[in-house]
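>> Question from a student workshop board

For tomorrow's exercise we were told to take the sequence and the ligand below, predict the bound structure, and bring the output to class. My setup keeps failing. Could a helper post the expected result so I can at least see what it should look like? The ligand is zinc ion.
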Amino acid sequence: MRDWAAPPEPLPYPVVDNHTHLDMDGTDVTARTPSERLDEAAAVGVTRAVQIGCDLDGAEWTAQAIRSDSRLVGGVALHPNEAPLHVDGTHPSGLDYEHAFARIAQLARGERMRAVGETGLDYFRSEPPAHAAQQRSFRDHIALAKELGLVLQIHDRDAHADVLDILARDGAPERTVFHCFSGDAAMARECVERGYFLSFAGTVTFTNASGLREALAATPLDRLLVETDAPFLTPHPQRGRVNSPAQVAATTRVMADVLDVDLERLCRALDATSESLYGPW
Ligand SMILES: [Zn+2]
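>> Workshop helper replied:
Here is what the output should look like for this input. Compare the format with yours to find the bug.
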């Protein structure tokens, strides 16, 4: 049985977990309800979260959860590693891509839905035959975010050039966020120039992540977000334990060090950016 990461020191000002999966808690973890995880987060200053449902079950779960917990708003999409299964007919649900995407589009119209995501390209966990399906799905999600006026949350793994290219060709939504930003400083500058927002996860705290910390240092305060991507990517030094929204406090502290800014000033900036992107909740 794996353990949850221990709660970090509290933040001086409340911040939002920009990207979390409360619907995923694994089977090898001691039971802790989403509401308990949010209570623990609130106790260390992480008072709100954007819940991301990125397959059909997760999206349905998200639509329910954001209605019953005022600390949450939601985002839904078919994850880039999920969409190709619907396209090639191997998804366990048996649902084809058109029907699966139509259900996502319907849920995205729901109350308290504020984002389309996570969508994008993942060339790390897929073979070239799946790339065309990922690109098709990414473009459909871009169009959906624009149609509904929602934030686009992008998943980009080992696919920087194609992600940037598709965004440029199709036209990015007005509010576009790179979730778990993984590029270098040059890519961060490119994203900033284009008006995008960069959300940093626990990966920025990893000992071997100096390139990512350079990217963070190249990003202006008013373009930054922080997230857990829980239950994945637990920040250093608790890697190996299970992540939850409270760990935003640990990542935010490291970010303040890297940026050499006062922790409270960073928290206020993160909070203001979250509100400007998603609106009040
Ligand atoms: Zn995620």
